[in-house]
């Protein structure tokens, strides 16, 4: 009898040990040599909140992701200004991933306890766009301060709006432009938009003579030109005055599809995802390409 009990006890211990090993083998902690694997279980697909400037690139990444994971539902997206997306997340809007166009907004998400550790996603830079027929006859950056022009920018609470002010500060410190340059440009501002795509749209529609957007937005506008979509011309900003935007991505702590979200993050931060982002004009974040988060 005692021998039978001992055998049963040994069997239970063996089963528990095997179960523990299986659980450890399916752990999702990202790291070198341990790329998270996607799960197709659960209802619906990933919900991704991403900065407006990521719209085309993130949609393409999602399509590639779904194609590589048969049975996975198509990701759902919400594109807007990073600050607006953060506000929605703070109001408990359901999401699995958050991609912001700046570190400041992502830091706020971290401080609020909304996200897991963020990772750099990509880089971008600023450019001035003008309507394809250039009614303001803008050929150089200095023209933006010419009285009477209509300039549109993003609000200072939006990452690209903050970057724009930083760029103007740099130019104002340059003797070639002078302190009056920033004042002159801001005097021409007719609206401050809630996201970069609203800035781009006003320029495309001819409601403004110029606007400040990301280089990727100008590329997206010209790639989509045709029909009602109008192309834009660009005026470059010197490297010495430009501001490099670094995008960050993180998994939400209350993500309904946490395993898939971590696997998607590993994909977009790796070489394959970085190649897709590059097709849309984004530069790799130095710590991103080829590194498994």
Which terms would index this structure?
single chain, 293 residues, alpha/beta, five-stranded mixed beta sheet, 11 strands, 40% helix, 18% strand, globular, disordered N terminus, disordered C terminus
Your description of this structure?
This protein is of the alpha/beta class. Helix content is 40%, strand content 18%. It is built from ten helices and eleven strands. The protein has helices at residues 2-25, 55-68, 82-90, 103-111, 159-172, 179-187, 196-204, 215-223, 258-269, 271-279, and strands at residues 47-51, 76-80, 97-100, 119-124, 126-131, 151-154, 189-193, 210-214, 232-235, 245-251, 283-284. A six-stranded mixed beta sheet has the order 2-1-3-10-4-11. Strands 7-6-8-5-9 form a five-stranded mixed beta sheet. Strand 1 (47-51), helix 2 and strand 2 (76-80) form a beta-alpha-beta unit. Helix 5 packs across helix 6. It starts with a helix and ends in a 9-residue tail after the last strand. The model is unreliable at 1-36 and 287-293 (pLDDT under 50).
